UniProtKB/TrEMBL annotation:
Pfam families named among the record's database cross-references: DUF309 (PF03745)
Matching SUPFAM superfamilies: TTHA0068-like (SSF140663)
The name this protein goes by in its record: DUF309 domain-containing protein
Annotated organism of origin: Brasilonema octagenarum UFV-OR1
Length: 133
């Protein structure tokens, strides 16, 4: 497992959790470009989920579903807790949103209030209590 995550990672987590998905993507992409495995794929999974929410905010259901699935598939390779976050919880929340999106008719996506509709709760990244974080 990795050591302590860089400050930029935690900045990206904060951006993710406050709905600044495009900024989160940019922050984590900068880390991803320079990273080595296993952190490289970890960053990519989170930034793909962030971009999925960005697409969803722009009513791009197809792009949101594709990237939400791809990002989740990348994160499934990691243990329950990795990099100081609760990976399992992020995956559970993302799977629930993906299922809800798949059941939503595309023409109804425009009427949804991202993050405010109870049927489409947006996942948050949960930090785990760890002596390294």
């Amino acid at each position: 497992m990795n050591e302590e995550m860089p400050d930029e990672f935690w900045q990206g987590v904060e951006q993710f959790n406050t709905g600044e998905y495009y900024a989160c993507h940019d922050t984590l992409e900068a880390l991803w470009i320079e990273a080595t495995e296993p952190d490289k794929t970890f960053y990519q999974g989170i930034l793909q989920i962030a971009v999925a929410f960005y697409h969803l905010g722009n009513k791009n259901l197809r792009g949101a579903v594709i990237l939400l699935g791809e990002g989740s598939n990348r994160l499934r390779r990691y243990p329950s807790e990795y990099g100081g976050i609760d990976v399992d919880e992020l995956l559970i929340q993302s799977a629930a949103l993906l299922k809800a999106l798949q059941l939503t008719e595309p023409e109804k996506i425009a009427a949804l209030n991202l993050g405010q509709d109870e049927g489409l709760p947006l996942p948050r990244i949960i930090r785990v209590n760890n002596e390294n974080t």
